Protein 1
Amino acid sequence: MNVGKLCTVDTVCCARGETIQAAALLMRKHHVGDVVVVDDPDGERTPVGILTDRDIVVSVVALGLDPLGLLAGDVMSDDLLLAEAGDDVDATIERMRLRGIRRVPVVGEGGRLVGIVSADDLLGWLAEEMNELARISPHQQQHERQARR
């Protein structure tokens, strides 16, 4: 399985020049905990950073800074972990684990943003896979009973 099939394609984005307050309002409006900061938000949308609700709390609110006076580019995490749409899920999970990152923008051809995959997305997929695996044993027992008649 590749991350391109699991990612959320309706990714909320903003430009580096967006104020922190405007970015926070985007998060509120779309009920998300992050925005992907992109160059050319109305065109190719190339990810350059990510801004999370935690970034805003820790780097702005806790320090008593003005969210109207700071920009997304000032607060975003720019040491960005990206996944290619064709990347293997297991490899992506390992990279996320090693970096302690819960959300990863997914890019396609030319580095263009195609979505975002989160730890929650991956946990949901893994839970479904585990459920399918758990269904093997009862089916095996049923087949054995039928074969022994």
Protein 2
Amino acid sequence: MTTTCLVVMGVSGVGKSTIAKRLADRLGWAMAEGDEYHSEENIAKMEAGTPLTDQDRMPWLRNIRDWIGEQDAAGRNTVVTCSALKRSYRDMLRRTSARVLFVHLSASAEVIASRLSERTGHFMPPRLLDSQFGDLEPLAEDEPGITVDVADSPEHITDEVLKELRLAPEGTA
């Protein structure tokens, strides 16, 4: 049986970790924080304010894809955070036997900049936000997933994602 992986995606500061945790908790699925799969070199680049290149991101994306595949082989449905800004990145993540669905969390640059100005303890500096919006390729109609505006509460966003993707917690009909 094929498992499902929700990739909660979007620019830095959009709320990926918050929504992914809520989804994983509600569904009873395993969760991974995509940032944990970055190399030390990538983290150092971002901390220094240098945007990552496609070449920098490929090993990171392969690591996340491999985790998805390992969880699928173990029969576990999953949720993972990953910016997945470009279609080519999302195509990489789908190269697994699991069914991969994308949850694109979306907001204006102004909303995200405000959130980032209040965030502490993260390696991604607010000054890289413009480069992320520059790289962002919204989900195309032929890509599996949904786009959700993050203006509402995390609880409402979680409810909306579950409803739109027709997902229910494990053990329920």
